[in-house]
Design brief:
Blueprint (H helix, E strand, L loop, with lengths): L9 H16 L2 E6 L5 H13 L2 E5 L2 H11 L12 E6 L3 H14 L4 E7 L2 E4 H8 L4 H46 L1
Antiparallel strand pairs: 1-3, 1-4, 2-3, 4-5
């Protein structure tokens, strides 16, 4: 009996290339299970993720595994079992994780399985911990405030020197006037 090897279908090759490109362009990728969710619920899930700079897509697990291996994201393959979807975060990974975790709280059918942050694999608990971090904007505001605080304090001290000198000089003049009058 001879076995016949067939070349992969062009549409499947294109899908693997698409997934690989998305993996390479993403700062983080999260894997979630959507078992039991309706098409409408999936559509409702995509809007907040899009607002957070992330894209939520459903692919065949076999094709996603091949793409993950091709892109060097072997840590994703263990999560690609059952009805899974990939969330690609190209911008702020914290905002994307927050949006995904918020959606999973609102819809218990959405289960976060794990993901990758850069080249580091993440468990579901890691994704939830990432979601609990302050956003990039909040961290930048805190950093700016930390830089600004010493400058404001220095400016206040520099303003106090001439003001206090003027008060002291005024008091000295008043005291001299009081001594001359007496």
């Amino acid at each position: 009996m001879t076995t016949k090897t067939t070349a992969p279908r062009p549409d499947k090759v294109a899908t693997v290339q698409e997934i690989t490109a998305k993996l390479n362009d993403s700062v983080a990728v999260f894997v979630s299970e959507y078992r039991g969710m309706s098409v409408g619920q999936l559509a409702d899930l995509r809007a907040p993720l899009r607002d957070a700079g992330a894209e939520h897509k459903v692919y065949k697990n076999t094709l996603a595994r091949i793409a993950a291996t091709d892109a060097g994201f072997e840590g994703l393959t263990e999560h690609l079992l059952g009805p899974t979807a990939l969330t690609f975060a190209t911008g702020d990974s914290v905002a994307a994780a927050k949006a995904l975790v918020d959606q999973s709280k609102a819809n218990p059918l959405l289960v976060i399985k794990g993901g990758m942050l850069g080249s580091s694999p993440m468990s579901a608990a890691d994704v939830k911990a990432l979601a609990s971090l302050p956003s990039r904007e909040e961290l930048l505001a805190r950093l700016a405030g930390a830089f600004q605080a010493p400058l404001v304090k220095t400016a206040g001290l520099l303003q106090a020197l001439p003001r206090n000198f003027a008060y002291g000089l005024s008091a000295l003049i008043e005291q001299q006037s009081a001594d001359d009058a007496a």
